[in-house]
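Exercise 7. Predict the structure of Enoyl-CoA hydratase family protein from Aeromicrobium terrae.
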Amino acid sequence: MSVRSEARDDGIHVVTMEHPPVNALPVQGWFDVAAALDEAGADQATKVVILRAEGKGFNAGVDIKEMQNTTGFDALIGANKGCYAAFKAVYECPVPVIAAVNGFCLGGGVGLVGNADIVVASDDAYFGVPEVNQGALGAATHLARLVPQHLMRTLYFTAKTIPAADLVQHGSVYGVVPRADLDDLALSLAAEVASKDGRVIRAAKEALNGIDPIDVNTSYRFEQGFTMELNLMGVSDELRDEFAGTDKAKQK
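Solution. The predicted structure, encoded as tokens:
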């Protein structure tokens, strides 16, 4: 199972991603994340959601090996639609979403975290969007919510990563703690939110989304269009083969 969900009695709903070895989610996994967030938000007893992960890291993006081992474009289209649904579900969840990030947070992981309302991280956490290495585009929309514009472009063009501790100074990560303390920090913040009147919290979430300077859903969908172009050109397939170490890459 890639995603599990727990509705607690205190108004905190915990959604956990776990897909060994590196939490690179398959197509269904992204839709499962979306479904878990939608279900949590639809429950009027939920006042706040924690999105977390078990394993080596928070999220390594899409499962490229699944994509390269699937005939045709079904996996590519599925990943595009699944990521869009998951990112949208985080952003449009009727209650605040706290992302608790451990270890690596790459590609689609940044899409999830960038759309969250509050971000906390372990001291070994780092963030990056290595899409250009795999001939894809996407999640710049969400990376731009974590760092200033020029730093976002530098990270995007170079595929470099940035440690969570550096994001604290930009205000996008609330706090960094040892990994053993990460869940406690997330739960502590969630408890503060859950102590408020749920009707007010839901109204506040809708209001804050309403005054957002960009439409994250449209912005991300625009990025995905270029990914499809690169795939039609054959560029993406070639770079994914190299990354996945498939037989097709070895034959070139």
